[in-house]
Specification:
Number of strands: 8
Largest sheet: 4 strands, mixed
CATH topology of the largest domain: 2,3-Dihydroxybiphenyl 1,2-Dioxygenase, domain 1
CATH superfamily of the largest domain: 2,3-Dihydroxybiphenyl 1,2-Dioxygenase, domain 1
CATH architecture of the largest domain: Roll
Mean pLDDT: 90
Low-confidence stretches: none
Number of helices: 3
Radius of gyration: 18 Å
Strand content: 25-35%
Strand order of the largest sheet: 1-4-3-2
Structural class: alpha/beta
Helix content: 10-25%
Order of helices and strands: EHEEEHEHEEE
CATH class of the largest domain: Alpha Beta
Number of domains: 2
């Protein structure tokens, strides 16, 4: 049985495990995006890596910026043109609002603080407010339009690593 399939006796094989390891965001300017996330938001990164590689089949360059997030999740920034080559799809502009990334924070004050930090780094902000379903949240769009929601949910606070 292939590695990505697991099976319990009497059941159908599960083709994909229910987990996420890497989120890759397409960006127009890799250095600018790296500066936003590293210097503006405080994410730790070794900087741009992989620029010495080019895929012989697709022509995609391997230059990316990586950030290891809590729980081992990787956030990867990859130039939009190179991601399109690598995935062998047509290149298109950013489409903000197709999905959002979310971060739970320990308090309402942390929502406001993180939105302020994002704004200072150049993000466009949707101000936080109380939602009728019991959370306090707001949004920011990074320099490439990727939508992030910053959320305080009293019933689901983040656990420290």
């Amino acid at each position: 049985m292939p590695r990505n399939q697991t099976q319990t006796p009497g059941s159908e094989p599960r083709l994909m495990e229910p987990r996420l390891n890497v989120i890759t965001l397409a960006v127009e300017d890799l250095e600018r995006a790296l500066t936003f996330y590293r210097d503006g938001l405080g994410f730790q990164s070794p900087g741009v890596i992989g620029s010495q590689w080019t895929d012989e089949r697709t022509g995609a360059n391997g230059a990316i910026a990586l950030f290891e997030l809590e729980g081992g999740l990787l956030l990867s920034l990859y130039p939009r043109s190179e991601l399109a080559k690598d995935a062998e799809i047509p290149i298109r502009g950013a489409q903000s609002g197709e999905f959002s990334l979310g971060q739970l924070v320990p308090s309402r004050a942390d929502v406001d603080q993180l939105l302020g930090k994002a704004a200072a780094a150049g993000a466009i902000i949707t101000p936080a407010h109380e939602r009728p379903w019991g959370i306090y949240s707001g949004y920011f769009r990074d320099l490439d339009g990727h939508l992030w929601e910053v959320i305080w949910n009293p019933g689901r606070t983040p656990t420290p690593e």
